[in-house]
Specification:
Blueprint: H1 53-63, H2 65-68, H3 70-77, H4 89-131, H5 136-174
């Protein structure tokens, strides 16, 4: 798989933090073992561009980092029975729970916001199309926006699968250390 423009393989090099998304910390910036490394991998800083589907999907990919790394996080921070006294697993699980909740809520908000924006664009274009049925450029634009809308709506299904997987893994490792508050 080719690397994105400006990207290179890991190694002893200097990377400008300005070139990286604010939501994905550099490995060298991660806190020591025992504390949650995933707490700031959820919400984007700045606005979300819903116009470009590739940019939208890339943003979601970055925002899903917490879910992609949950197994590693749990393996390195929640002790097995033989190491139970060395790390406060309940604190670690609570921090991870809060990070997951924040990440899932922020991603859902981004997806639903982009769906709403794109739906409004489709509606406006359809209203314009009703006024001029012969405008083929407008028809192509409507189809493009409808396709984008379908992609965004499918991201809600992807989100549900990603969230379910993360909660399953979380509950397997943290159920004896932390009881999440009841949802109303």
């Amino acid at each position: 798989m080719p690397l994105p423009d400006g990207a290179s393989l890991p190694g002893p090099q200097v990377i400008s933090d300005q070139a990286l998304p604010r939501t994905a910390p550099l490995l060298c910036d991660w806190p020591p073992p025992g504390s949650s490394r995933l707490s700031n991998m959820s919400a984007p800083t700045g606005g979300v561009n819903c116009e470009e589907i590739a940019e939208f999907q890339e943003l979601l990919k970055v925002m899903r980092t917490i879910d992609d790394r949950i197994v590693h996080e749990l393996n390195t921070t929640v002790p097995t029975a033989s190491f139970a006294g060395k790390i406060d697993a309940s604190k670690t699980c609570k921090q991870l729970y809060e990070s997951l909740m924040e990440a899932h809520a922020s991603r859902e908000k981004v997806i639903k916001n982009c769906i709403a924006q794109t739906s409004a664009v489709v509606k406006t274009l359809q209203e314009q199309r009703e006024k001029d049925l012969n405008d083929l450029t407008l028809l192509k634009q409507i189809r493009k926006e409808q396709t984008k809308l379908k992609w965004m709506q499918s991201e809600l299904n992807v989100e549900e699968v990603v969230n379910d997987r993360s909660w399953k893994v979380f509950n397997e490792r943290c159920r004896i250390h932390f009881k999440p508050p009841k949802m109303e």
